[in-house]
């Protein structure tokens, strides 16, 4: 099992969460909530209002999201869904645990107790330079006050 941190449309209550609970795509087990240890710019960009975490460590905010434990099948689905490695790149990042529900081995419990876990995160280094000038968010909600509702793939 791999640990994945999601910060956008795959979170609970967001437009693509349905994929995280679709066992035909693999298994994803909610572990808890967290935020990036380093600051990153989280922007909403493009004509479909897609959330992107720009891989510019030290700039922006500590981005909030959810931590999941996923099997190989779900990880492969997520790679395809996220257009990895062209649109997003899957990299390991340190995530500060804010709230932990995960049950697992002693190593997992110790990591959570220490407050920081390593997770795969889909961020991007392949973005138009003007995205750096967009507003930075610390948390994503498709129906947030930014007014930039995400456009589902089936509606594009």
UniProtKB/TrEMBL annotation:
GO molecular function, one term: gamma-glutamylaminecyclotransferase activity
Reactions performed catalytically: epsilon-(gamma-L-glutamyl)-L-lysine = 5-oxo-L-proline + L-lysine
InterPro entries: AIG2-like_dom, GGACT, GGCT-like, GGCT-like_sf
Main enzyme class: lyase
Annotated ranges, domain Gamma-glutamylcyclotransferase AIG2-like: 4-105
Keywords of this entry: Lyase, Transferase
Source species, domain of life: Eukaryota
Transmembrane domains' residue ranges: none
GO biological process: modified amino acid catabolic process
Enzyme Commission identifier(s): 4.3.2.8
GO cellular component entries: cytosol
Transferase in keyword set: yes
Active site: 82
The protein's role, per its UniProt record: Catalyzes the formation of 5-oxo-L-proline from L-gamma-glutamyl-L-epsilon-lysine.
Family: Belongs to the gamma-glutamylcyclotransferase family.
PANTHER family reported in the protein's UniProt record: GAMMA-GLUTAMYLAMINECYCLOTRANSFERASE, TROPONIN C-AKIN-1 PROTEIN
Listed name of the protein: Gamma-glutamylaminecyclotransferase
